[in-house]
Design goal:
Elements (H helix, E strand, L loop, with lengths): L2 H9 L6 E5 L20 E8 L3 H10 L3 E6 L4 E7 L8 H4 L1 E9 L11 H14 L4 E8 L5 E7 L11 E6 L7 H16 L4 H9 L1 E5 L4 H9 L48 H13 L3 E7 L3 E4 L11 H13 L11 E4 H4 L7 H9 L2 E7 L10 H24 L2 E8 L2 E2 L4 E6 L8 E4 L5 E5 L3 E9 L2 E9 L3 E7 L1
Parallel strand pairs: 8-9, 8-10, 10-13, 11-12, 14-21
Antiparallel strand pairs: 1-5, 2-4, 2-5, 3-4, 6-7, 7-9, 11-13, 14-15, 14-18, 16-17, 16-19, 19-20
The structure holds zinc ion.
């Protein structure tokens, strides 16, 4: 059972991954690694570039297939991972100055406090054993290498007449983003351990289900721990696939991914080709979350759909309002500012095949990406210095979406002759906002539907075959429960 000991046996190296830092305005017009260094196996560089035109040059970097580690739109800088084997070069005329160049030995495993997939398995099963009335763990799929994909459900035994709305948290689509796993595990632990003593947590778990996937990509994680600390993708095919460019909505449709297998944003051979993607899609389709947060790192951002250039979701008030509110709750690591909210295309670059666009479009989920930690901390900040600070800070964000789920909106229950039915269609339209086209809400398997709304007056139309029921609902600060008998 001594995972830690076996890990040391494999790696047998110190934990600090950054071997050296070269500072200030250096080099690299038209060169990759400087002479003499370029063939050092396992050595990569993280280059920080100061861009003259952030948006235009970010686009060029994405289209050029560069591995973008993180970015700071406010200071117009971007971090690029450059492999020792890379032939890519940076032309100062195009990309501006390299202001920092860190050498990373990618054969050195992350700080030992972070979790391997085996440790995650052990931790979540122990939590379920310790809190059998609150925590259940299930495998919702298997990876290419045969690892289980685990989901944790945290909720109490209390029953609700209209069922319980679901909030979904997931982490580690990208293998090297190890802090995201800590946030997911902390959320599960926090909810289970505070249920008995904290009235608000008790209310949450009595009225909602929190589903947590601590590792979407355990195969990639294994590679991070045993081979390459900068690995991002899964390990299927010849070069792995970026699971978060593989979802079928707008897959390969807006220059937001790469078709080159060796690229770090390789979208895969077809839409939804990956085991992890398929398992996530099936899980989301089954649990039908009201809100979702996908944790990534780094850059201190709160991102919301849509992610292709120029596109916004119809429900901007709720989706963007929530993202902006969460960003305000998250102080930056440096302490001088807050996380920045926006769509990916507004503040970084276009993304296609990402999970949040698919979740919103397919299942009416209100989904966010939170990019943890600053460009100073990177993918794998010191565990002792940053783990607790980060997970404690981020509680404000996931707690915000739980509160929002249980506050302003409509939770409906559709029945025919007293039996719940799921094949009805619901449209919710504002009676206040002029020209509101409304939103379609699909009904879950248990006959329930859930709409998060800003306070106001709404028309709810529920249709099934020839039968239609129309109701007017006044939404204030509380969740309104609506029984619809067709
Ligand atoms: Zn990521």
């Amino acid at each position: 059972m001594n995972i830690r000991a076996s890990r040391f046996a494999i790696l047998c190296r110190p934990a600090a991954a950054v071997a050296a830092v070269l500072t200030s305005t250096v080099l690299l017009a038209g060169t990759a690694f400087a002479h003499g260094e370029q063939d050092q196996i396992g050595k990569s560089r993280i280059l920080t570039l100061k861009l003259r035109d952030f948006k235009a040059q970010m686009r060029e970097l994405v289209e050029g297939g560069y591995d973008i580690a993180g970015a700071s739109p406010g200071s117009s800088t971007v971090d690029i991972v450059q492999r020792a084997s890379s032939q890519q070069s940076f032309n100062k005329e195009i990309f501006g100055q390299v202001i920092e160049s860190k050498i990373v030995d990618t054969t050195i495993a992350p700080d030992v406090g972070y979790k391997t997939s085996a440790e995650v398995d052990e931790i979540i099963h122990r939590l379920a054993n310790n809190y059998p009335d609150l925590v259940t763990v299930e495998s919702f799929g298997r990876t290419h290498e045969g690892r289980d994909l685990w989901a944790i459900r945290v909720t109490s035994q209390a029953k609700q007449k209209a069922g319980k709305p679901v909030v979904f948290l997931n982490a580690l689509h990208h293998a090297r983003e190890v802090m995201t796993v800590e946030v997911a595990l902390d959320a599960a632990d926090y909810l289970a351990t505070n249920y008995g003593t904290n009235n608000e947590v008790r209310d949450w778990l009595d009225r909602a289900e929190i589903w947590i996937v601590p590792m979407v990509n355990p195969d990639g994680s294994n590679k991070v721990w045993t081979e390459d600390s900068m690995w991002r993708k899964n390990t299927s095919g010849s070069d792995g696939v970026d699971v978060n460019r593989n979802y079928p909505y707008r897959w390969n449709q807006c220059n937001g991914s790469s078709g080159t297998p060796s690229s770090d944003t390789y979208r895969g051979p077809s839409a939804g080709s990956e085991n992890e993607t398929q398992a996530m899609m099936a899980l989301v389709g089954r649990i039908r979350p009201v809100y979702s947060i996908s944790f990534h790192s780094y850059s201190e951002l709160v991102l919301y759909p849509y992610s292709c250039d120029g596109e916004h979701v119809p429900q901007r008030e709720v989706v963007e309002g929530g993202g902006k509110a969460m960003a305000q709750l998250l102080p930056s690591d440096g302490g001088s500012g807050k996380y920045a909210p926006g769509t990916s295309w507004e503040i970084l670059y276009a993304v296609d095949g990402g999970d949040i666009d698919w979740m919103y479009n397919t299942h009416n989920v209100i989904p966010y990406v939170i990019e943890l930690n600053s460009t100073s901390q990177g993918f794998q900040p010191s565990f002792s210095a940053w783990r607790n600070k980060t997970v404690q800070k981020v509680r404000a964000a996931w707690q915000y979406v739980i509160r929002r789920t249980l506050q302003s909106g409509i939770r409906g229950n559709v029945t025919v002759a007293g039996e719940s039915v799921d094949n009805a269609v619901v449209r919710v339209t504002s009676l206040i906002k002029e020209g509101d086209v409304g939103q379609m809400i699909s009904v879950k398997g248990d006959g329930t539907f859930h709409a998060v709304l800003v306070p106001g007056s709404y028309k709810v139309v529920v249709a099934r075959g020839e039968r239609t029921v129309e109701k007017t609902v006044l939404v204030g600060g509380d969740l309104v429960t609506l029984d619809v008998a067709l």
